Give the backbone structure.
Amino acid sequence: MSKKENVFVASRFVLPEHREMYLQVKEDDKLETMPILEQDELESFHYLLRDAGREDYGVAITWWRHKKNNLGTTCKMFGKVEWIDMNTRRVKLLTVEDVQWIPLDNITDVKT
């Protein structure tokens, strides 16, 4: 018997709650723990950020964003370092469309 002939098999219904739960599980599968970096890598990132802010050139910053428990996602943005606030330990990254404050402690990569 084909699926066309068996109406009950061909027309499965999914409740909205089940679909939402399935999508949430799929999103949770993409989450990862924050990478652990060496001290020399962190110092290199801070040097590149200070230099980019002083010399006015663009950088690509990758950082980890917390979602739930100890898991999160990795974000990436290219822009100009507008300000480094050492009191709150954040970097202000300016793009054509957006301004993003990025926590220094969550930065996982900086490229020029």
Q: What stands out?
A: Residues 1 and 13 are 20 Å apart (CA to CA). The radius of gyration is 22 Å. Residues 39-55 form the longest helix (17 residues).
